Structure formats: structure tokens, C-alpha cells
Amino acid sequence: MHESKRKEEISFSYLNALCAIAGVIMQRNYVDNGIDAYLEGDVYLEDGSPFKVTIAVQVKSTSGKLGVTANNTIKYPLKVRNHNILCSKANSQQLLFVLILPEKEEDWVNLTPDELIIRKCMYWLNLTGNQPSTNRYKVTVELPMENRLDSNELLSIMSKIAKDGVFYDTCI
Question: Is domain 3-65+89-129+145-164 annotated with CATH 3.40.1350?
């Protein structure tokens, strides 16, 4: 299996673990339409009523040295097609999730009789409403380091979507 495919599978394993902890269903999408998975879960509104939220996500992973800017963002080169899909308005929220792995492949995952560790972490970015890029191949996006994705952050995002209907407040 090619290195990029291994990274992709690790990123889905990471996301699947976060979803399991949060009680969110992850359904992979095997159609090449720019959306890699749909996350679906129930959150509860202030009046206690359940609200079903679906998030469409594009899942990426990378290893190696990434540029970190002075304002604590991680620079990530994204294909223009993928960027433009995430910029478009849709009937469900669309987000980019990027798993940052260590530079050395042997450091990505560690398995012992006591634990399974996937090193480093995943970050998210909302590009909805941004202008599509006219670049030819790639566009560099900046993932705020404060947008570290864990199960609590995932539920927080879903709660904001349930409350506001759309999650535009984090556009860059």
C-alpha cells in the first residue's frame, strides 16, 4: 500500500476513534465527490430536545515539516478542487479535517499490549463562504492550532450547528 494511502487510513482510524468516544456515527463516502465521510450525531438544544446534526468532512493527513505561522496556524497545501468544494454552500456543514503525523513513518503509530497510540493530532477548518481559488493546482490554507479536534470539540461544533443552523463563525 502506498504511503499516502496508509496515512489516509490512519486518519480515518483516528477520526473513527474520536467519533466513537463522542457517540457520533462516521460513514465513509467512497464516491470521489470531495467529501470523504459524513458524521452524524444527536445533540440537545437548550430546551432538552434532540437535534440531529450531519457534518460532511474532507479528511486529509500529512507528515513532515509544516510551516507554523506567527499567529499559530499550520500551513497546509490543499488541492484547488478540494478547496473549492469546501468553499461552496451546501445543505450540511462541510469541514476540512487534517491529521498531522510525525515526520518519520515509524513514529506514526505505536502498539503495545497496553495501548494503541496514533501520534500528533487532527485539526479542523471551515472554508464555507470563502472565495473559490483560481490557482491551478494547490492553495495553501491555514489551520488554527486552537482548532485541535478531539471528541469534545467535535460535539461542540455539532452543538453550534444545531443552535445556529450553520457554523460560519469560524471562517478564515
Answer: yes
What pLDDT digit, counting tens, does each position of 155-166 carry?
999 999 988 765
Domain ranges, ordered by start, for the chain: 3-65+89-129+145-164
Query: Alpha-carbon distance 99 to 102, whole Å?
Result: 10
Helix (H) or strand (E) holding 75: strand 73-79
Q: Do the bridges between strand 93-101 and strand 73-79 make them parallel or antiparallel, or are there none, so unpaired?
A: unpaired
C-alpha neighbours within 13 Å on the C-beta side of residue 126? 19
Residue 68: DSSP 8-state: B
Q: What is the model's pTM?
A: 0.90
Query: For the chain, how are helix, strand and coil distributed in percent, rounded to 5?
Result: 25, 35, 35
**End-to-end Cα distance, the chain:** 35
DSSP string, 97-114: EEEEE-SSGGGTEEE-SS
Under 8 Å CB-to-CB from 75, ≥6 apart: which residues? Answer: 66, 67, 68, 69, 140, 141, 142
Residue pLDDT, tens place only, 33-84: 889 999 999 988 888 888 899 999 999 999 977 777 778 899 999 999 999 9
